[in-house]
Amino acid sequence: MKPIHGVKIMLADDEPHILQFLELGLINEGYEVRTAENGSDAVDLAKEFRPHVAVLDVMMPEMNGFEVCQSLKETEDNIAVIMLTAKDDVDDRVKGLKLGADDYVVKPFSFNELLARIEARLRNQFPDLLGEVVHGPFQVDDRRKEIRYQGQVLELSPTEYELLKFLVLNHGIVLSKSRILDRVWGYDFGGEDNIVEVYIRSLREKLKDKEHRVIRTLRGVGYRVDLL
Fold first, then answer.
1. Is residue 114 within 8 Å of residue 82, measured between CB atoms?
2. What keywords are annotated for this sequence in UniProt (predicted)?
């Protein structure tokens, strides 16, 4: 994805070498970047800077990443929050997501992984910055709530649209059933997780994906869209 002029990213981490590394990398990608070394400064900076995306380390002095995330989600009109966690702790991920975090990255991570997560959040939460997004054979137009596949408009229900958009905009990333349920159906969904399988099957029929080459199943892990 080509960087969009004027997209603002805030980085908050108490490790200066990580901040410098990420800041230089994102500036080279064309983004406007500001940094904070503790949670309190991050909250103040967000009020002034008004970032589109905030990347927050969980463990920070003064205010931790969870507290900053909650504050940003309560005070900013529309901000995407990506949490950085030092361990692959399910409880940490669940806590962050319940407080409004949109994604998480487990340390250590590659710059390209974080960049892909940032781009996915921009595509999901700021479609007006992007207009129509093209990924391989898919064209996602969030303003018209329309997805084209190989040039043809797909006839999708609202839920099918949201599910396929989520899969396509996160192409190449394995998405678990629980994560899909949280993002597409919401945290308060009280049904069975096999609803995901039902909708995946319907999407495959509409994509004529009998061999599961477009929407792949990784048994015991989740689903991944591969662009052919």
1. yes
2. DNA-binding, Phosphoprotein, Transcription, Transcription regulation, Two-component regulatory system
- The model's confidence at residue 187, banded by pLDDT at 50, 70 and 90, is low
Report d(CA 177, CA 154) in Å as an integer: 23
Residue 96: pLDDT band with limits 50, 70, 90: low
Query: Which H helix or E strand runs over 202?
Result: helix 194-207
Q: What is the pLDDT of residue 218?
A: 93
pLDDT band of residue 186 (cuts 50, 70, 90) is confident
Q: Tell me how crowded residue 43 is: count the other CB atoms within 10 A of its CB.
A: 19
Hunting for tokens 């994509």 — which residue is that?
207
Give the CA distances from residue 220 to residues 130, 132, 174, 217, in Å, rounded to whole numbers and listed in that order: 34, 33, 11, 9
Q: Is 34 in contact with 51 (CB distance < 8 Å)?
A: yes
Structural element, H or E, at residue 204: helix 194-207
Could you give the CA distance from residue 171 to residue 214 in angstroms, rounded to a whole number?
A: 10
The single-letter DSSP state of residue 175 is: B
Indicate the pairing of strand 138-141 with strand 146-149. Answer: antiparallel
| E strands in the chain | 8-12, 32-36, 53-57, 80-85, 103-106, 133-135, 138-141, 146-149, 152-153, 215-218, 222-225
As a whole number of angstroms, the distance between CA 228 and CA 89 comes to 33
Domains of the chain and CATH, by start? 8-127 (3.40.50.2300), 131-225 (1.10.10.10)
